[in-house]
Structure formats: C-alpha cells, structure tokens
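Extended Data, panel c. Modelled sequence:
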Amino acid sequence: MKNYPYFISHEYEKLEGLCAAGHYTGAAMELKDLFEIILKLPVLTGMAYIIQSGDEESTRACLKLLMRKPPSLGDWKVLADVVTAKLPARSVYAGPLHSILENVIDLYNNSRVNIIKWRNDLFGHGAFVDNVFYRQQVEEKRPYLDAYLKENARAYSCLQYFIKGRPVGSAQDMNEDMAFDAQADMSIRITVPGTGQEKTFSVAPLIRQLFFYDSLNIHSMLVYGLNYLSGRKVSYASEYLVEQYFETVRKPGEKPEVTAFQTQETVCASRLSGTCGHREVLQGAPFPPSGGYKKRFRSWLWSHMAKGQQAVPYSASPLCHVCS
C-alpha cells in the first residue's frame, strides 16, 4: 500500500488486521469507511484543483452542490461526476485525478457492488447482526475494493499530501490525540508520470489537517470536518466557504438562518443586585442595519467567528418583563 495516500493505506491496514483476527463486524465498518474515502478524497482534491485553477464558474458549480445541504453518499457520487467533468481536460496535472475519479465512478455505478444501497442497508438503521453475517459481507465486497486499488496504484502514486510541509503519515502528524489546528494547511503535490514535472497546491479548507469536509452548519456558519483515521469530528471557521455559500447557495435577498446568533439566555439586570430572581430568553442580538445587508452581515458574522464567539454578547443586561 506504499503507493497510496495515508488516508487509504492506514485504513486498509486496519481492515487487513481485523480480518486476520476474525473481527468481521469491525472489518465491515472499515470497509464502509474505505468505500467512502476512495470517493471523497479525489472529489475534494479535484475541487481544490478547480478552485486554484481560477475557473470561477466551475468552482461555483461544485461548491453549490457541496454546501447546499449535508451531502449524502449519493450526493458525493454526483459530486464525483461533476468534478470529473469540470477538471481541465488538457492539463497533464489533472490526468491522475481524472483517472482515479473515472474509476471510482465506475465502481459506484457497478450494480453488482451497489455500494450506496449496501452501505445504507447495512449501517443506515444502526442495527447489527452477527459476526458470520459481516464476514459474508466483507468477503463479498472486498474483492471489488482490491481490484479498484490495484487498477489505480500508479495514479495514486502521483499524489502526495502534506501538512505544514511534512508528508502525511509521519508519526508527528498521525498522533490521533493531537490538538486540532484549523490553520494547519493541507497541500498536495501532483507528479506527472515519466516527466518529473510537479504541481503543488492547497486543499484547505476542503481538507483541514486530517479532517475531510463533512457539512456546513447554516446556523453557526461553521464547517464540520470528519477524520476517518480517528473517528473524530470537529468544527472550524472558513471565511472562504462562508463567502462562497452566500454567493452560490443563498437566493438573492434571502436572509441567513443564523439562529445561534439571534437569541441568548441572559439574566435580568436587576438580578445582578439581588433584587430579581427571574430568568428568560431575551431577544435582540445586534444585526447590521438594512441596506447592503448581505455584505454587512458577512463582515459582522466573520468578525465574531474570528474571535471564537459562539453567540453575540449583549452590551448591557436589560430588565426582564417583570422588573420593567
């Protein structure tokens, strides 16, 4: 597995270990994760390539599909189709990504595997069966994964991912207990086979540290990222994705649904002096004035996100309806 990005090789080694130990329930979960990773990794990398290429129309088309709602596995498959079509056809650097994406699309379209239905039926309802059943499932589906990885070994060998300039997979970066650093830039270097030509570009904020983009919370305007290697999920701010959300997903003039910033439970001012025991939710978190609403709102929202605030503090504690 040395030709594969660490996201894939790490999980495949875990799959092998679980199968060897006879733990097929865990192996089935790993197989599910691998089927998701081999789809999401090239999709996010291909989108990052399109973004850095400066093709604004293709960028908007991809990000609109990504952020309009939390994407299901079927949505990721649609994204793979779109990203493949939008990648620059004549770029030698996009060649390996084209090959990987086209083959993973073929795998997902294979009715014998039927990955999306299999994944939803097996794990979608949270019901677990016995180890014998999961062994049958792994032995039935794993050959398709192995065939895909074998077919794409050369193309994957052209992709190398880095965190802060270090190849992903180093002991320092793979410590699963490491603190999440939302500013840790993930980049990728693509090498053209047989020429030695290289191209390096950032894949952030679609991949942050080891966390794949999972969804955008339209209430807090924070991105959720999923780390398949450790099972962790984090949230982080991305000014770029928030900006793109308002440009590509929101309808013109539609107000944002940032309810986390609209209300806050607070204490009546007179309670501070011990004269009131009432507690209620007080409305009135400050919003920008009308006129240029969208631009002012983005600026206002980002200034609070940058300070790490999850709610907007009131400038003063007003009186509750009893004391007033």
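The CA atoms of residues 103 and 148 lie 7 Å apart. This feature is highlighted in the accompanying rendering.
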